[in-house]
Design a protein that fits this description.
2 copies of one chain form a homodimer. The first copy, chain A, is mainly α. The first copy, chain A, is built from 9 helices and 3 strands, in the order αβααββαααααα. In chain A, β2 (68-70) and β3 form a beta hairpin. Chains A and B meet through α3, α4 and α7 of A and α3, α4 and α7 of B. The structure holds a DNA duplex (30 and 30 nucleotides).
DNA sequence: TAGCCTTATTTGTGATCACATTTGAGCAAA
DNA sequence: TTTGCTCAAATGTGATCACAAATAAGGCTA
């Protein structure tokens, strides 16, 4: 596993199992953990300076969300997806994310559009600098910023679950193929938001989602 | 003569935390736990003849799936849903379940249709006998039997997550209002399956799902 | 009766340990 | 090189405990 600086400082008001959970969740979602990499209780516990108990709870929670798979003997492994599974998750994203975007649309305001534009230019700069792996994090940041406006926590939670499952596989993709994904669709999404164009928004979201995942299947 | 332990006794090949998890999951999904009922680690552990450790893992996993809510102080409570949340979950069901049914359609065979019919008549009999609470379990059994044919585990997992969240609230509904839900839509689902009518199947699934949840909101 | 303070009980958290199983390295034989 | 075997190391599981925080209970005042 990649060494990480603790983004979340040690704060006694945040329980250890929660701290471990959040950090590992980010590592998985943003592709900092490779497929088939396995995580041991004692290893995770040591890395976070805690005992096995909170490490176990964090791993259990992550495997419940599909971020990790647990083998028959109880070991925890990062997911490695078959093409059929990727196709299934792509379908789920194209079902749920347009709905989230549509729900966010009436609540969109200028500050959000500026924020999305800023995220977008940040992605472009860093990807053109060769940091292709940053695309995963930036892209999810872009989508989440929009979907948060939908005020639909259960729906967003499901979508994040799907992102979690895709994380390690996406990372492997951007490592092998070194093509930068197209940022173009993000511009069309922002355009539809400005115009209040709901069908156009659904369509561009759908294209963005399926476009990224078609790369894996090819 | 040598002492024999009963065959139904604890099976060491299934870990205690898994056993506790499965049982509690059923209790929540089928509405055997009331909204706002809270579960304590020591209470659950004692009920299953285990220590706090496996009980904690089971509860953590359930709260990760949305079956339970955990308060800021770490206590576990069965979900009690607001109308907006119910509406959101209803939308999710009507997005995902028609897709699952559609994927199952080409794989449907006679044995499955017979099974669905049997489940259906069982529901009718027990509900007409006054066991309205059985409708929850029977209805989910019906839907799951169909969706299993879709061979889409990630999608089915998401749908079950939604069922989990609705469980306790549905129970409260069927306790207060004593109207029996209509079983009619199930017949139309079976009809569409026999005819291979994909649009009709999607429509009847959607009606069945939204119909049941409209009762709550009224 | 209602509201508030104090105290006793309950509860989640995290650490440590023993135990059985699994895993993997090393080596031998084909 | 490959396959199979042995054994030491690594690993998950579940139990127990101390501790601090939260909750409930009891009693007092107004």
């Amino acid at each position: 596993m990649k060494e990480h600086k603790p983004i979340i400082a040690k704060d006694p008001s945040v329980p250890a199992h929660e701290r471990i959970y959040r950090q590992l969740r980010n590592d998985v979602m943003y592709g900092d953990i490779k497929p088939d990499e396995n995580l041991t209780l004692r290893g995770v516990a040591a890395k976070f300076g805690a005992s096995m108990t909170p490490a176990r709870e964090a791993l259990r929670k992550l495997s419940a969300e599909g971020a990790l798979r647990s083998t028959y003997s109880g070991r925890y492994v990062a997911n490695s997806l078959t093409p059929e599974r990727v196709e299934e998750l792509a379908t789920l994203r194209s079902l749920l994310e347009p709905e989230l975007a549509s729900r966010a649309l009436p609540r969109v305001h200028n500050a959000l559009i500026e924020r999305l534009t800023a995220i977008n230019t940040n992605i472009e700069q860093r990807v053109s600098r060769g940091e292709t792996h940053f695309y995963i994090r930036g892209n999810l940041e872009f989508h989440r910023a929009l979907y948060l406006r939908a005020q639909s926590p259960a729906m967003l939670a499901l979508v994040e679950t799907i992102w979690l499952q895709l994380g390690p596989t996406l990372r492997k993709l951007y490592e092998t193929q070194n093509r930068a994904p197209n940022i173009d669709m993000h511009r069309r999404i922002i355009g539809a938001l400005k115009a209040g164009d709901e069908p156009g928004l659904r369509l561009s979201i759908r294209s963005d989602v399926t476009g990224a995942l078609r790369m894996i299947l090819s």
